[in-house]
Amino acid sequence: MILVGAGQIGMAIARRMGYGMKIVIGDKNKTNAEAIAKTMNEAGFDAVPVEMDLSSRSSILALIAEAQKYGKISMLVNAAGVSPSQASIETILKVDLYGTAVLLEEVGKVIKPGGVGVTISSQSGHRMPALTPEEDEQLATTPTEQLLSLDILQPQNIRDTLHAYQMAKRCNVNRVMAEAVKWGERGARVNSISPGIIVTPLALDEFNGPRGDFYKNMFAKCPAGRPGTADEVANVAELLMSSKGAFITGSDFLIDGGATASYFYGPLKPAK
């Protein structure tokens, strides 16, 4: 298994699906990768940490090569990314949009027959107004090295970091659909999961920061009435990555406690 992004969601999925196999954990922060590997190894897993940069094709290829030293790659979990409050527009597009596209492309070339991948997108992509069919197809099928040159991704067309993040996550979902066709030629499957607010150390920082009231309002006014947990995301990943999900590929699963439903048709709907 390749796990990209040494965080709580990625670890929850890896713990659910990664027993009995080598787990290669890639993260830009080697310390984070080492910490997750240590936690997993002390629980009986077989994990090795690797420093890698999702925004770099050469770094992605090096991670894949490292994983291949242990055998054929049968699973990919991509839980890496940067958030609108963490990074610039340029960084969000380079990591979350371009990097994810390259990772899906390169792993798709070597994934074992019967293999499976899941990438973590976000509820944010579901809140952005619909793109044109042409724009959706561009995000899905444009060669990866040309993606960041698309007109819709140029600075004058991206309002702020949230808009960049939403575009990146919409691209993730579209890319998964297009890649599922290619992965299918190898007898492999790939899907995406779009979580809402999930409690992690990073999220706790946000809750206690300047946007804390925004998040608390979202919990209060969504049908579930609370944020989610990484293990609930892993519940969905377990379905998608197991034999029970054998007929599911090229799909996205929204798991947000109904926050998006409330955003469109309930008390979270923005005032006009």
How would you portray this structure in words?
47% of the residues lie in helices and 14% in strands. It is α/β, with parallel strands linked by helices. Strands 3-2-1-4-5-6-9 form a seven-stranded parallel sheet, sandwiched between helices. Helix 1 links the parallel strand 1 and strand 2 (22-27). Helix 6 (133-141) crosses helix 7 (161-184). The longest helix is centred in the middle third of the chain and has 24 residues, at 161-184.
Helix content: 40-55%
Please count the helical segments: 11
Q: CA-to-CA gap between the ends? A: 46 Å
Instruction: Please identify the structural class as seen in this structure.
Output: alpha/beta
Shape: globular
Main beta-sheet annotation: 7 strands, parallel
How large is the radius of gyration? 18 Å
Mean pLDDT across every amino acid position:
96
Q: What is the spatial order of strands in the main beta sheet? A: 3-2-1-4-5-6-9
Beta-strand segment tally: 9
Which blocks of ≥5 consecutive residues have pLDDT under 50?
none
* SSE series: EHEHEHEHEHHHEEHHEHEH
Strand content: 5-15%
Q: Any key phrases for this structure?
A:
seven-stranded parallel beta sheet; two-stranded parallel sheet; 47% helix
